[in-house]
Amino acid sequence: MALRATTRVTLGFILLALVCFALGDFEISAHDPWRSVGQLLLGLVQPDFSGIDSLGEALLRTVAFAFVGVGLGAGGGMLLALCFHRWWVRTFSAFIRAIHELFWALIFLQSFGLHPVTGLLAIAIPYAGIFAKVYAEILDETDPLPLDVLPRRAGRLSKLVYARLSQAWPHLVSYTAYRLECGLRSSAVLGFVGMPTIGYHLMAAFAQGHYSTVGALLLLFYLLIGTLRWWVRPRLLPVYLLVAPFLLGTGLPITWSNVTRFFTEDIVPSPLKRGEGLSALWEWFAQLFMNQALPGILNTLLLTQVALVATGVLALALFPVISRHFTHRASGAAGHVVLVIMRSTPEYMLAFILLQLWGPSMLPAVVALALHNGGIIAHLVGRRSNEIQLRQDAPHGIDRYAFEMLPRLYGPFLALVFYRWEIIMRETAILGILGIATLGFYVDSAIQEIRFDRAMVLILITALINIGVDVLARRLRGYLRLRHGVNRQQC
Q1: Cβ distance 452 to 346 under 8 Å?
Q2: What is the pLDDT of residues 192-207, one digit of tens each?
Q3: Buried (b) or exposed (e) across 383-418, using 16+ Cβ within 10 A?
Q4: How far apart are CA 353 and CA 483, in angstroms?
Q5: What b/e sequence results for 156-167 when a residue is b if at least 16 CB atoms lie within 10 Å of its CB, and e otherwise?
Q6: Residue pLDDT, tens place only, 3-25
Q7: What top-level class would CATH report for the domain 1-30+276-491?
């Protein structure tokens, strides 16, 4: 019964993706796309580090925003996790993590401008929602027995510290350190909206056609991510957190009157500001929904479905490159490098590069989403495959893959795909800022037209859709009785 249900769900998702692919725009429209690809590859082979001072400064800013933003998010997430049993805390956490970091950045740019606080809040707020959920799960999984041996007079703080945090501490530290890698990607992407991180310099280099500088920036970013385990040590984290705020820069001064006006006037729907009543508000919302929200929702769902299935296909094709059942030491090491590059490149950054190379369509977005998320799932499934013990007379080659490994790994693989579903939806929506007609396109257009009330409504709709997809994915995992069984280290 479970096998038949899994087969039906899989085939249903594939069929729906094929229909969406037929309805979408997946053409390469650039005049000479392969020449541009060759120039980029040449830039990676011959990087230009001549502007090492500015590149180094961008790298330091990227690290600083990541450390401070993730640190604030972890602190806020822990406070939320301690009262996560309350429904309104769970709802609030789900809402703030459903809005992408770039959407938060666009909101705070209108009030705080190009000030470090914009980047910090853009990272800290959604990360607080993520940390709240994961921290609460880690604390709930601690052994309740130590609570019974504590004195009855022990207060809540003592019980928390000595009975729960002491057990959960290694897992909390491990997850927080991993989330820092996600924070580095988020910090880099903030450069595309003007923050002085590596993404800003990448965008400028592409605009000027300096592919060697683009190659240098990408190589520096991969080096930063690839060496994370060596320079981010628990003992050094307090030092990094103390130094990082001084590396953020000052930015433009905050005009507090703009902040007040934005939150009290600019985001209020225009019919209410004009005092036109609820009937005018409903007409305003209906027009916004039909003309912008609905097309954005349909394109977001269409692109998400194609990207989700492409992610799954790519992950199934690539997990053997790091599995000990299919590789030797040298080939396995090369496979690890490939997957590190894939999962380390932010979807937004990769989509931006592909849009410059191939022209505007949904194809760059699908490829970017599939490469990043496929790399993550292939890495996790490949690690899971290394835990499987095969009999001595097990077949080799394609028979080993099809009859020995895939049946054992398909359940965890499918659970991971459903886990990434909501994350792919978040990224799909934000890719609209690059010109693809998803919800992010209409949000960005409303902001450019200084119609912040419309932008806020569209952002709220995006958050609600993300929450809905997350709920649906959880129900599908429950229906299919799926448990990914890997770990929580999934961005």
Answers
A1: no
A2: 988 989 999 888 888 8
A3: ebbeeeeeeeeeeeeeebbeebbeeebbbbbbbbbb
A4: 35
A5: eeeeeeebbbeb
A6: 688 889 999 999 999 999 999 88
A7: mainly alpha
The three-class DSSP label of residue 143 is: coil
User: DSSP secondary-structure letter at 249?
Assistant: -
State whether the Cα torsion 22-25-26-32 is positive or negative: positive
Contact status, residue 113 vs residue 255, Cβ threshold 8 Å: yes
Contact 81, 135 (CB under 8 A): yes
Q: Where are the domains of the chain?
A: 1-30+276-491, 50-266
1-30+276-491 and 50-266: identical CATH topology: yes
Q: Which two tokens stand for residue 79?
A: 């406070």
Spell out the residues 6+ positions from residue 116 whose beta carbon is closer than 8 angstroms to its own: 65, 248, 249, 250, 251
Assigned token pair, 121: 């809040």
Candidates 375, 92, 104, 119; CA nearest to 247 is: 119
d(CA 380, CA 441): 32
User: CA-CA distance, 274 to 155, in Å (whole number)?
Assistant: 53
Residues 6+ apart with CB under 8 A from 241: 67, 68, 71
Q: Report how far residue 2's alpha carbon sits from residue 77's, in angstroms, rounded to the nearest whole number.
A: 36
* Predicted model pTM: 0.90
What CATH number does the domain located at 50-266 have? 1.10.3720.10
